[in-house]
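W.,

You were right to be curious about this one. When I first looked at the sequence I had no strong expectations either way, so I just let the prediction run and decided to look at it fresh. Below is the sequence, 344 residues in total, followed by the output.
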Amino acid sequence: MKILRLIFLPLVPVYAVVIAVRNFLFDKKICKCKPVKAKVISVGNITVGGSGKTPTVIYITSLLKKSEKKTGVLSRGYRRKSSGYVLVSDGKEFFTSVDKSGDEIYHTVLDCQVPAAVCENRVEGAEKFINDTGIDTLVLDDAFQHRWIKRDFDIVVIDQRFLTGNNFFINNLLPTGNMREPFSSLNRADAIIINRKFVEKKSIPPKRMKYLENKPIFTAYYKAISFIDLKKKTEYDLNEFEGQKSLVVSGVAKPISFLNVLSQTNLDTQNRLIFRDHKKYTNKDVQLIRKKFYSTNSHSVVTTEKDAVKLTNFSKELDDIDIFYLKIKLELDDEDSFKNFILP
């Protein structure tokens, strides 16, 4: 993989020019952002995957819902088996499957119980979504680069390890690195959330901190809540899994955080099946899980909440295996300040 990234290194300047020209056209209002009939809050990042956008969307959506806002979530529906505008839920029932909506938006609806939709074209999607549901506040999932729609708040989530790291194959623009945009693009963000996930807070190097100056900066972390039985929906305390030998199944961007928190609960995580991000599980994958589960004499299967959404489709095939997902939530170190920032 690194060899391929090195081969693509000459394309990095080309990509940088394309991004710069595009942003210039929007900054100079040659390309214009279109307003919609709702307050719009965008949640995005400047890297590919793993920053914590979905937990942040869930956090902000729940906050708005508690404040009695008619809130809905719009996503592009990454890797979904559909196209165009699809109304996923009205907040009470689902109108489509996880395959046709995407795992992230499905996960969000399950957690927040709010209307949700997917559409590649954010303006078209927002207009139809607002008309279909009557929402007055719209949370855009992964929309920092989707500048055609006017937003009231542009919130960027950044993984703390990305800010403190100096990896050539991460802290570089695509296609060699993981950056969608250069650090200078943070200038258009209204606020930054630094997500340290399950690790301690660290100082940001001055060479990175200079891009965050004069911006409201909030720090966040993940808190493990409990284990949930995938089929029975029964909730268990974290300490009930201490010492348990489980098969860990993960299909998220950066599974290291998931593995770390499982280790902190003293779960035996030596048996693992790690898939690519946004894994679409098939019968073949399920048979692989079954084979690995029985060959390792595991007591249970433990997975992420995002994976659990998709594995639910195979409850019958996995009927003889106990499957649990780790329930986590994002918390802010200074929630009151964030509430004052985002709520009128």
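Here's what jumped out at me. The mean pLDDT is 95. And, maybe more interesting for your project: The chain has two domains: 2-215, 223-329.

Coffee later to discuss?

I.
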